[in-house]
Amino acid sequence: MRRWPSDLRIGGSVRFELRVALRYLLSNPLQSALLVGGVAIAVTVFTFNSALINGLREFQIQRVVGSSAHVTIEPERRSPAIAAADDGAERLVASQRSLERREQIREWRSVEALIEATPGVSGLSLNIVGTALASRGQQTLPVTLKGVDPARLSAIAPIDETIVEGQPRLGLNDIVIGRRLAGELGIGVGQPLFVQSEQGRERSLTVRALYETGVDSLDGRLAFVNLGTARVLFDLPEGLTEIELKLGDIYAAPEVARRIREATGLEASAWTERNQRLKDAISGQRSSGDIIKLFTLLTIVIGVASALLLTTFRRRPEIGIMRSFGISGRFVLLVFMLQGALIGIIGSVLGCLLGFGFSSLLATLPRQGGGSALPVDPALGEYPIALALAAVASILAALWPARAASRVDPLEAISQ
Q: Which letter, b or e, does each residue of 29-59 get, where b requires 16 or more Cβ atoms within 10 Å of its Cβ?
């Protein structure tokens, strides 16, 4: 009969309990391998799901926000004053916005100085934006004209990187339009384009360049003109209609917008406020991803708990003999808890490696037209979280079998 060390009478040392736990695991290598493999597969699913959901989120955000402002500053919107009704009655007032005085940012130079002193701002564009009609022969289309400083043409959207024809020059009589808009108008570089603003001002401009960003709202309806040209067309000799900012950290946009709003009194909105549909879509993706992660953790708990519980019943006589030699229930409890911890740690480490490798493989697969076949980002696999949750889940799964083993009656076990 095996002789146990004398120090086990008071529960033993953790080092010896770890040796016993390892011996139990190695006594049935196939079962242990299946347990570790099950945890590894679950963690692989967890990390790949995280890399896919988070990568898709970043892809969508960059697709929407990459060519637009992170923070937009506009004039303070003022509603017409309403005179009090007689005898406390309510008065219903209808206001036609097009007939009201157009608001503008008059003190934009002081606002520009404030923005340039704000940390995290990587791009700044001073704009005059309005609607107009662009005509070429018999074809007339509504467009959005954006007057910008020629030196800051690409401060928000990378227009200079998307030029497919011509040179992005913006003199007082020049215009840069999207390739899709040029196709609809039947116009090319170097040809004149007749423009009439919503204020009735008219001008003939020369198309200097065509750009193509892949965003229909830009390529098909947005045209860039010189800021001085926009002042004449929209009758704004002094002010601006908006100021756009680009940030190094797009998630800092709400805080930057809040600070600017408090400091200037102007309307400052972050990209998150202007893209509610995107925000809802990302929230839905995150919820579905969390559900998948929950089921992977449940898989770990069920697998580890059932296997260790089976081991407990199979080793009842051995546990009874150990208890008859004075080994404490705490020692037995810790042995089975250590088994769960070892299974969880080894399996989760292996799963993180497999998840990273699988995500990296899919990220390198090309798709037709360029780019990755799936928007998977291996760096966003949440590996520390997966490692911690899998280890904790395995330990918790071992708690029930461990408690059952620690409560084995020595006499009853030996008699069986």
A: eeebeebbebbbbbbbbbbbbbbbbbbbbbb
Tens-digit pLDDT profile for residues 70-128: 899 998 766 555 556 555 556 555 555 544 456 888 888 888 898 888 888 888 999 99
Tens-place pLDDT, residues 143-202: 999 999 998 888 888 888 889 999 988 999 999 999 999 999 999 999 999 999 988 899
Give φ, ψ of 131 to 5 degrees.
-100, 155
Q: How many domains does the chain fold into?
A: 2
pLDDT in tens, 157-173: 888 888 999 998 899 99
CATH number, domain at 155? 2.40.40
The residue among 219, 242, 265 that closes a domain is 242
C-alpha separations of 203 from 182, 196, 315 in Å: 18, 7, 92
Domain residue limits at 408: 6-63+279-415
CB 326 within 8 A of CB 5: no
Q: Which pLDDT does position 161 carry in this prediction?
A: 85
**Residue 314: burial class (beta carbons within 10 Å; 0-12, 13-18, 19+):** exposed
Contact 193, 182 (CB under 8 A): no
> Where does residue 105 rank: exposed (0-12), middle (13-18), buried (19+ CB within 10 A)?
buried
- Rounded distance, CA 105 to CA 76, Å? 8
Closest by CA to 111, choosing from 292, 240, 249, is 240
DSSP state of 239: -
SS3 241: coil
- ∠ Cα 126 131 135 (to 5°): 120
Cα 151 from Cα 407, distance rounded (Å) = 79
Global confidence as pTM: 0.63
